[in-house]
Amino acid sequence: MNPDAPIPNASNADALFCWCRAGFEPDLAAELNERAALAGFPGYARTERGSGHVEFICEDAAGLSRKLPFADLIFARQKLLRIADLRGLDPRDRIAPIVAALEAQITTGRALATFGELWVEHPDSDEGKPLAGLARSFGNALRPALRKAGWLTARDDITRPRLHIAFLAGDHAVVAIGDPADGSPWPLGIPRLRMHPDAPSRSALKLEEALLTFLDDDEREQRVRDNMQAADLGAAPGGWSWVLMRHGMKVTSVDNGPLRQALLDSGRIDHLREDGFLWQPRRTLDWMVCDMVEQPRRVADRMAMWFQQNWCRQAIFNLKLPMKKRWEETRICLEAFEHQCHRQMTIRARQLYHDREEITVYATVAPR
């Protein structure tokens, strides 16, 4: 690799480009508009419902990106810096315009900042899924061309910026830069988890994804251990209890409904036929999880009570959102939860891939 190879100048980015769940574009747009305004960055969100992405147009997109860490965004699956919006691409040669767009954005520098990976993506939407074949074949053609031109390392390197090509249509592609340390580690922000044949329900995937999303490797090793004590509120049929049990925990599953017999036979789960909103433990637990279908503000209030009373050290819970003004409801619930805990908290929230009309929240008492 030529040590004097040109590198992309992210300061020339003209927008944030964020993937999201199809149908939740207005909610991500509202979140970006509000957060950008609070950070002092004028701009505006642009999207179409069902498109699976939102662009936030801003003069200093790179500066805004630094002020809005990906970990703080709730409705975004991925956060990128857009450096080119290519429309009217000729299907006979889509590579040349992309290389030209990169060359137009370069600044003299060393190869330390050349791209470490190439991801060619498409919206996770009904309209975007037919583009999957194009994205795959184009990526196979573009990688060797970029490596020959010195834009891409010979082997994947996650310590360097990532090049993203997002096909929004066959003749429309967005060229963007991703920071591996400030974004999702999965293409499109989608973890590829497989449903285990022994899992009692698909909801198990939500908790598995939450543990991967909210805790890094070191945190999972420290906070998800054998023989920890946990409670699962609204447990039936037992998907979340099953996940905790597989991580070696002893689980109290609270629900008036039945659990799968295999869970009861494990010897690691106690089933209490009680109301999860009323039950309380006799001593502080390591974990509490909750996936009850209930009004989000009521859930947030009850979750705060658990931390007020020191009934648990950390929790993962879901907030089922209304059909409209979901960002507003999310903000209200999270602010109320943090206020009512009466303790310094660490709170992380995200609409996970395996979520639907909900967000998932991780909360723990902040270290002093």
What report would you give on this structure?
This protein has 368 residues and is of the alpha/beta class. It folds into two domains: 7-189, VC0802-like (2-Layer Sandwich); 203-365, Vaccinia Virus protein VP39 (Rossmann fold, 3-Layer(aba) Sandwich). 30% of the residues lie in helices and 25% in strands. It has ten helices and 16 strands. A seven-stranded mixed sheet has the order 3-4-2-5-9-8-7. Strands 12-11-10-13-14-16-15 form a seven-stranded mixed sheet, sandwiched between helices. It starts with 6 loop residues before the first strand and ends with a strand. Mean pLDDT is 92; it is low at 1-6 and 108-113.
Summarize the structure.
This protein is of the alpha/beta class and 368 residues long. The chain contains 10 helices and 16 strands.
Topology:
Blueprint: E1 7-8, E2 15-19, H1 25-39, E3 43-46, E4 53-58, H2 61-67, E5 78-87, H3 95-104, E6 106-107, E7 117-121, H4 132-149, E8 162-169, E9 172-178, H5 203-214, H6 217-223, E10 229-233, H7 239-246, E11 250-254, H8 261-265, E12 269-272, E13 285-290, H9 296-308, E14 312-320, H10 326-341, E15 345-350, E16 358-365
Parallel strand pairs: 7-8, 10-11, 10-13, 11-12, 13-14
Antiparallel strand pairs: 1-6, 2-4, 2-5, 3-4, 5-9, 8-9, 14-16, 15-16
Helix pairs in contact: 5-7, 9-10
